[in-house]
Amino acid sequence: MDSLKEKIFSMHPEMKRHKFLIASNKSIIKGNIPVNDGDEIAFLPPFAGG
Amino acid sequence: MNSMEIKKQKKVFTEGAISAGFIAESIAKHSAKKNIGSHSIFLGQVRNDIINSKAVSAIDYSAYEEMANEKFHEIREEAFQKFDLACIHIHHSIGRVNAGEISLFVFTSSKHRKASFDACRWIVNEIKTRVPIWGKEIFADETYEWKENR
Fold first, then answer.
1. Number of A–B residue contacts, CB under 8 Å
2. How many angstroms separate the CA of residue B105 from the nearest CA in chain A?
């Protein structure tokens, strides 16, 4: 996830200013996990349900 | 615990505001379940917050729906494990909901009051922190700001 974040930040530096969580295949990821082909990765801004 | 109720993913999202009529009907349907002695209901209403001297006139809700539905399902299952409930109903709006209208309806029922009270509060808190839903706060001049749960 750290290397993915690096990549996103270099492509979109403005992302550094935003708070977000990362989900892999619809589960929130804290720390690092391997990313496989076909995994669905999502950058999720702060939630506002309710 | 009713296994039928925890296995099936239920439809949570409803387009636009949740009407008082829908809520009333939902309450009425429970008269058939005579083992229930307590209902707790939480209604989330869109507030006309003042942000930078402009009042919010509506919230436009969007969601990562597939993940949100999974999370709602998880929360339901966990609530059935944690509390002694007869049933749980959760409805959340998607799309535009005007200030003063209802965007969240959580309805828990149990034999005695403690379980329905505690579960209702717990479910609302879990929705706010775990479910990927976003809200665009729209002002009267159609400018907007993204809402963030505290």
1. 55
2. 9
Question: Can you give the pLDDT at residue B1?
Answer: 44
Cα angle vertex B31, ends B72, B22, to 5°? 50
Residue B95 forms beta bridges with which residues? Answer: B61
Helices B65-82 and B113-130 pack at an angle, to 10 degrees, of: 150
| Contact (CB, 8 A) for B84 and B149 | no
The secondary structure of chain A as a DSSP string is -HHHHHHHHHH-GGGGGS--EEEETTEEE-S-----TT--EEEEPPP---
ipTM value, please give it: 0.88
A-chain residues near B66 (CB < 8 A):
26
CA distance B70 to B140: 34
> Is there a contact between B103 and A50 if contact means CB atoms under 8 Å apart?
yes
Query: In this predicted model, what pLDDT tens digit does every residue of B100-131 receive, in sequence order?
Result: 999 999 999 999 999 999 999 999 999 999 99
Contact between residue A22 and residue A33 where contact means Cβ atoms under 8 Å apart: no
pTM, full prediction? 0.91
B positions 99-138 inside 8 Å of A (CB): 103-104, 124, 127-135
